[in-house]
Hints:
14 strands; globular; TIM Barrel; 14 helices; alpha/beta; 375 residues
Amino acid sequence: MQLSGFSMRSGRKTQKSSLKEDAGLTGRSRQALTAEPAAVNPATQPLGQFPRIRLRRNRAVDWSRRMVAENRLGPQDFILPAFVKEGGAKREAIPAMPGVYRHTIPSLIELATRAAELGIPALALFPVVPLERKSTAAEEAFRADNLCNRAVAALKKAVPEMGLICDVALDPYTDHGHDGLMQGGVIVNDETVDVLIRQALAQADAGVDIVAPSDMMDGRVGRIRDALDAAGYQRVQIMSYAAKYASGFYGPFREAVGSKSALGKGDKRTYQMDPANGDEAIRECALDVAEGADMLMVKPGLPYLDILHRVKQEFRMPVFAYQVSGEYSMVKAAAANGWLDNNRVVLESLLCFKRAGADGILTYSAIEAAELLSE
């Protein structure tokens, strides 16, 4: 039985019906449609084509995948950001950042000891400054025995092999939550740099290894470098927050250090970078390199991998990325709801930084990731 030119037995159009429908084709075209496909002869195939090239071969087994991996992740790639507070409870949880705590100095020493045991090379310290110590002029930032400097001295004594990094910025110390001094509602540049220099020198006096200007004031790297050198601190390194964006991903951090309420509905767009801009990041980095930066940083991290890659390709010097608090908290929230595999995503996201060109990553997952890698 046949219906509409189809054979019920073969499921193909009959030759007669097919020829009628193909009447508009030339004989050569009709032959091409009805011919059986020619057998593939690898010997006649151009080099570099399937089936000679099968990329899946290298992916077939675990040992082979490891052997050909282009990037590798290890504890030496991590810098652990840590929050230090004055006395009271040994440590206190930060609700917006599950698994991250504000530490007293004794608790911070325990944290640093564990990080050193895992092979993490450095900690980045962030002080939780009491409200009564904040002011419009940010005098606490350069006081010799402020919380941050006392923590540096204690850590250097207890865990001398651990590198210590301190931010050079005023937001933990100002009563308005901005990174610089405010005059008439404007964040002033040059006056802020004067205070940043004093802050960096106080940190160097305490024993810090790396100062990290994160304020995004113009010209601060060169003036800090000159001041450090003049004071005999030629060995103190500068890790510049060269490409720091005015991002919405910083919210949990501001809660952690207590600057969120002070900043209120204000923003930092007059000195931090516009997320729309990429070329500007290269200009910022070039200026900091010329002023003496030893290392560059891109912040935030994953949303700015394109910037990270461009910076590394352009300058071919140590470049770091900061996986910021919002990035950390998103993963933890999704994992808590069962939407993501926490362990897998933690390691995958960190590996992405390496692939993009990062020499290291500041990440709140540093200890967690190092432990996962050791399993």
